[in-house]
Amino acid sequence: MNIKIIYETQNGTTQYVAEVIQKQLREAGHETILHSVKYDGMQPSLEGIDLVLFGGPTYDDGKLEKTLREFIDVYSPDLSRHKVAVFGLGNKTYPQFCVAADILEEWVKSKGGRLVVESLRVDGFPDHLEKISEYVQSLVKLS
Q: Could you report the per-residue pLDDT of 25-63, keeping only the tens digit for each?
């Protein structure tokens, strides 16, 4: 599969998770491209992409990172032609744990997308990668 991971990060943790996902998908034989909304642009091409992942952190009291929030306001792809998955980061000490994933799920649906696996929700910095690896394995099974 050709896969694009579109993400934004606030302090680097979401980027780290995106890179771990990318590495594991590549090890499974999939062409995988990272796309930072801030550095690679607000209009990523999905031409030739089979699976697109959207990921971001939750900050403050249940908000998306600012650049990612702007991104979902301006980016309007037809996601009905792609397999789609979401990952979100948060901190369980806050009542709005991983609301970023919920917001991205709703946005995906509003663009005609259908989530093909349960969204990954990561608590804090992932010291252990088992949960991410399980998520990646569920993506690999789609091919």
A: 999 999 999 999 999 999 999 999 999 999 999 988 788
Query: Which domain, by its residues, includes 53?
Result: 2-140
If one counts the domains in the chain, the total is 1
pLDDT-wise least confident of 1-5, 64-68, 115-119? 64-68
Q: What is the CATH number of the domain that holds 113?
A: 3.40.50.360
Distance CA(22)–CA(39), nearest Å, equals 17
pTM over 0.90: yes
Which H helix or E strand runs over 33? strand 31-36
What does the DSSP assignment read for 39-98?
HH-SS---TT-SEEEEEEEEETTTEE-HHHHHHHHH----GGGSEEEEEEEE-TTSTTTT
